[in-house]
Design brief:
The protein is built from 12 helices and 15 strands. The chain is α/β, with parallel strands linked by helices. The strands form 3 sheets. Strands 1, 2, 3, 4, 5, 6, 13, 14 and 15 form a 9-stranded mixed sheet that branches. Strands 9-11-7-12 form a 4-stranded antiparallel sheet, with helices on one face. The chain has a two-stranded antiparallel ribbon with strand order 8-10. The chain is globular and about 80 Å long. It binds (2S)-amino(hydroxy)ethanoic acid (HGY) and manganese (II) ion (MN) (2 copies). One manganese (II) ion binds next to loops.
């Protein structure tokens, strides 16, 4: 029945995804984690991450995908198309997490894409176009401060960052090699725009708009720009008892001032243009309660869907760093690690997603993404768009992150409907 309906081209009659199977796989993947960390932690380059990707690989193979790991460490599962010479449809996301993260951010998109393939095959439905299921390497910021490693690699944007160093002096290139990637050969990881029809990413919203609106599916209009800087402050380590307050060059007090300065300037929304700013990581040396901190380093992040806000906030952060340095006699170095401009999702693919959701009889919302995504990098190569499912209480990047099994399953159904429509259309 399902097969006949699929052949007839009725998107609204696509077979249902197996909600329980998908959910049990999400929970199984979540269990592959760093036991000493809170939540469901599986950071890029960690041993659990390595093991988890073997699990993802097996799930891809069981679903009937031909699997390959590219030189950048991306896990690629291919389903051949029925018609020779057509460009690929790519779907996927990532399976690494932040420290103390959850079970859905990224994983819903990768395991959902594999479920989509299982449904297609069970329905005896072949696509005309080849389908590429991707588990991008390391989407979250890693110990080098850089996010979206795999999607940067396929879009030719990883190479300039290979020299980034972590706290122990190791370079990103060395860490990639130790993980089994071949950073010297990154050229062969590049995706050819001509060979791509489009990229669709299913993801949890990570905010509360869908839940508050009581709407199960969101079509993303744009992905916010994200700019990250590392700031190093050097003062002078001194005895905490014998050094009078007026004679200190305290690198942590300077960092604290910068944290509050960033909070202030991020709260400003000139002309109603909004943005957010965060310092989520701070290191202090020598790190003793009876020593005035002589050195500190912090990672600052700015986000907005508006380039003008980012420009203003970045200049404001630099000015604040100079002011703190001058007033506190600290040497302050600010280095931009990455500066990603906001990205608009492809209008044709958005329309296709909207139509697919309508044909499923579901309500929808169009919304911006204030989280960064691999789709923003892939958008440099080909039409790219995103589909969101709700996050309970808008919580994400925390162990409480939660999306109901039926909500994830509905997201996969909508993604499947959109993939079928894109396959039939052959263009956007
Ligand atoms: O940081 C982000 O926005 C994303 O969740 N990686
Ligand atoms: Mn994330
Ligand atoms: Mn994510």
């Amino acid at each position: 029945m399902a097969r006949a309906l699929l052949r007839s081209g009725l998107v609204s009659e696509t077979p249902r995804v197996d909600e329980e199977r998908l959910f049990s796989q999400l929970m199984e993947l979540a269990e592959v984690r760093e036991p000493e960390q809170p939540g469901w932690t599986r950071r890029t380059f960690s041993e659990p991450y390595r093991r988890s990707r073997q699990l993802v690989r097996e799930l891809m193979e069981e679903a009937g995908l031909g699997v390959q790991v590219d030189v950048a460490g991306n896990l690629l599962g291919r389903l051949p198309g029925a018609q020779a010479g057509l460009p690929q449809i790519a779907i996927g996301s990532h399976t690494d997490t932040v420290a103390g993260g959850g079970r859905f951010d990224g994983m819903a998109g990768v395991l959902g894409a594999i479920e989509l393939v299982r449904v297609l095959r069970a329905a005896g439905q072949g696509l005309r176009h080849p389908l590429l299921v991707v588990d991008f390497l390391g989407e979250e910021p890693n110990r080098f401060g850089l996010s979206c490693l795999g999607s940067r690699a396929v879009s030719g944007a990883l190479e300039p960052h290979l020299g980034l160093r972590d706290g122990a002096g190791e370079t990103l290139g060395e860490a990639l090699s130790a993980f089994g990637a071949r950073p010297r050969e990154l050229g062969s990881a590049l995706w050819e725009p001509d060979r791509l029809l489009g990229y669709l990413e299913l993801h949890i919203e990570q905010g509360r708009r869908l839940e508050e609106a009581g709407v199960p599916l969101g079509v993303v209009t744009a992905i916010c720009g994200v700019e990250r800087a590392e700031v190093r402050l050097t003062g002078r380590a001194d005895h905490a008892g014998t050094t009078p307050m007026g004679r200190r060059r305290d690198a942590l007090a300077g960092a604290a001032e910068l944290v509050l300065g960033l909070e202030r300037l991020a709260a400003e929304a000139p002309g109603g243009v909004p943005g957010v700013g965060t310092v989520g990581r701070l290191e202090v040396l020598p790190g003793a309660s009876n020593v005035v901190p002589g050195w500190s380093r912090l990672w600052a992040e700015l986000r907005s869907p508006e380039p003008s806000w980012l420009e203003r906030a970045a200049a404001g952060l630099e000015a604040e760093a100079r002011r703190v340095g001058a007033e506190r006699e600290l040497e302050v170095e600010l280095e931009w690690i990455s500066r990603e401009a906001p990205v608009r999702c492809h209008e044709g693919l958005r329309r296709l997603l909207r139509d697919a959701i309508s044909e499923l009889g579901q309500s929808q919302l169009e919304l911006e993404s204030w989280a960064g995504h691999d789709a923003a990098l892939v958008a440099r190569l080909c039409p790219a768009a995103m589909l969101f499912v709700p996050s309970r209480g808008g919580r994400s990047h925390c162990p409480e992150e939660w999306t109901e099994p039926a909500q994830v399953a509905l997201g996969v159904e909508a993604l499947l409907a959109a993939v079928l429509a894109l396959d039939r259309a052959g263009e956007v």
